Amino acid sequence: MALVVVSLNPRRADFAWFLQLRRPPWLTFEPLIPLIWLLIYGCFFVSALLVWTASGRWDLMAGYLLLLVLVQSYTWLICRTRRLDSGTAVGFIGWVWGIALTIAVARVSAVGWLLLVPYLLWSPVGTFVTWQMQRLNR
Questions:
Q1: Domain count of the chain?
Q2: What is the DSSP string of the chain?
């Protein structure tokens, strides 16, 4: 998990560009976003651990890895391409994959799938914010 996060972190100069973009005026909770993601990543980890303990299935672990790559590539891709629509697309794809993974995990672990719900609730918020930022930063 740490390897994916470190590998898909944007460069400092690229991230500085991202931080200078205009945000919607209603985005007053932006300082909490890193904490929200920390909580979601913790839920990913515990969910994957529970699922692995219950099933030992490599296909589900690959599903978690793909979800993590999609989630972490959101900011990296925006910063790398300097296109917010890239983030909107990756955010939507990650949410759809998250739904599929949650359905698969529900067959193995009741707590495991519940731990994916925070991501499923938060991901559309992030995608919507990015979509709104597209309109402000043409």
A1: 1
A2: -HHHHHHTPPPHHHHHHHHTS---TT-TTGGGHHHHHHHHHHHHHHHHHHHHHHH--HHHHHHHHHHHHHHHHHHHHHHHHT-HHHHHHHHHHHHHHHHHHHHHHHTT-HHHHHTTHHHHHHHHHHHHHHHHHHHH--
